[in-house]
Design goal:
It is built from five helices and no strands. By secondary structure, it is mainly alpha-helical. Helix 4 crosses helix 5. The longest helix is centred in the N-terminal third of the chain and has 12 residues.
Length: 78
């Protein structure tokens, strides 16, 4: 159990998308579209994890995950 707690702490401490306190507070009241725009602006070029994006989005993270996972079904099959 102790090892898994350390892994959780490591994941929570990793932050590739750096937001100021003001930006974090604004995310609480913004729409999902505005949150996605902010994520796109702050996203690093090398890598970002889905967990980091979901952490920024907050309460709407399940909605965002559903959108991401359903994108493949929007491509027409010919």
């Amino acid at each position: 159990m102790r090892g898994s707690k350390n892994k959780v702490k490591e994941v929570q401490n990793v932050s590739h998308i750096d937001l100021s306190k003001k930006e974090e507070n604004e995310l609480q009241a913004e729409s999902l579209g505005e949150k996605i725009e902010l994520i796109i602006q702050k996203m690093p070029e090398n890598e970002v994890t889905l967990v980091e994006i979901m952490d920024i989005v907050g309460a709407d993270s399940l909605l965002l995950l559903t959108v991401i996972l359903s994108l493949i079904f929007l491509i027409p099959v010919s």
